[in-house]
């Protein structure tokens, strides 16, 4: 399965693509960041972000998209930008008929490091090890996007089976 992970952000939106099957280590396909100018208007930034994500979807042809679930932070402005970037990624994937999964930061950290309270450096270190890379992807947004994709690769099928078994009851 090929998964595109998105660490949403208005200025830097991390994108990472991994491929794998259960029982085998995932493989890095591509990683990068979609950037928008901080001095541009919100509309222009969202259009640029959509164009960047669409280009990644077209080039990488993922089978699923994993996006970081926006959670409440102390800085409302940061939350709003993250939520807007997240919505752009979800919409772009849905337009293509791709399944979208939302994973919380603590869920991703637990999947990658074994601790839901791991810091960014620990996540980057484990992404580097899991994907057998020579160095951690930079910036941190890129590494976080790969962590999201790996988390979904490892947890997504089980979550889908659980949801099907519950018949939508949650």
Automatic annotation (TrEMBL):
Biological process annotations from GO: DNA recombination; DNA repair
Domain of life, per UniProt, equals: Bacteria
Which EC number(s) does UniProt give?
Answer: 3.1.21.10
Recorded family membership: Belongs to the RuvC family.
Protein name (database record): Crossover junction endodeoxyribonuclease RuvC
Active site (record annotation): 7, 68, 141
Self-association and partners: Homodimer which binds Holliday junction (HJ) DNA. The HJ becomes 2-fold symmetrical on binding to RuvC with unstacked arms; it has a different conformation from HJ DNA in complex with RuvA. In the full resolvosome a probable DNA-RuvA(4)-RuvB(12)-RuvC(2) complex forms which resolves the HJ.
Per the record, the coiled-coil ranges are: none
Listed GO CC annotations: cytoplasm; Holliday junction resolvase complex
Q: Which organism is it from?
A: Motilibacter peucedani
Q: Does the keyword Phosphoprotein apply?
A: no
Ligand binding (Mg(2+) 2)? 68
The GO terms describing molecular function are: crossover junction DNA endonuclease activity; DNA binding; magnesium ion binding
Q: Lineage of the source organism?
A: Bacteria, Bacillati, Actinomycetota, Actinomycetes, Motilibacterales
HAMAP family registered for this protein in UniProt: RuvC
Q: Which cofactors must be present for this protein to function?
A: Mg(2+)
**Reactions listed under catalytic activity:** Endonucleolytic cleavage at a junction such as a reciprocal single-stranded crossover between two homologous DNA duplexes (Holliday junction)
UniProt function note: The RuvA-RuvB-RuvC complex processes Holliday junction (HJ) DNA during genetic recombination and DNA repair. Endonuclease that resolves HJ intermediates. Cleaves cruciform DNA by making single-stranded nicks across the HJ at symmetrical positions within the homologous arms, yielding a 5'-phosphate and a 3'-hydroxyl group; requires a central core of homology in the junction. The consensus cleavage sequence is 5'-(A/T)TT(C/G)-3'. Cleavage occurs on the 3'-side of the TT dinucleotide at the point of strand exchange.
Q: Which residues bind Mg(2+) 1?
A: 7, 141
Q: Which UniProt keywords apply?
A: Cytoplasm, DNA damage, DNA recombination, DNA repair, DNA-binding, Endonuclease, Hydrolase, Magnesium, Metal-binding, Nuclease
| UniProt remark on cofactor binding | Binds 2 Mg(2+) ion per subunit.
Keyword Metal-binding in record: yes
């Amino acid at each position: 399965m090929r998964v595109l992970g998105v660490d949403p952000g208005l200025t830097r939106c991390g994108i990472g693509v991994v491929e794998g099957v259960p029982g085998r280590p995932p493989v890095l396909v591509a990683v990068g960041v979609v950037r928008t100018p901080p001095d541009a208007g919100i509309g222009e930034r969202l259009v640029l972000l959509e164009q960047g994500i669409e280009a990644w979807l077209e080039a990488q042809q993922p089978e699923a998209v994993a996006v970081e679930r926006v959670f409440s932070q102390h800085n409302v402005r940061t939350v709003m930008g993250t939520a807007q970037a997240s919505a752009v990624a979800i919409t772009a994937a849905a337009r293509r008929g791709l399944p979208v999964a939302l994973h919380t930061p603590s869920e991703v950290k637990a999947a990658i490091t074994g601790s839901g309270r791991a810091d960014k450096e620990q996540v980057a270190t484990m992404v580097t090890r899991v994907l057998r890379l020579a160095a951690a992807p930079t910036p941190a947004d890129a590494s976080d996007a790969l962590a999201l994709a790996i988390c979904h690769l490892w947890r997504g099928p089980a979550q889908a089976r659980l949801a099907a078994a519950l018949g939508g009851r949650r």
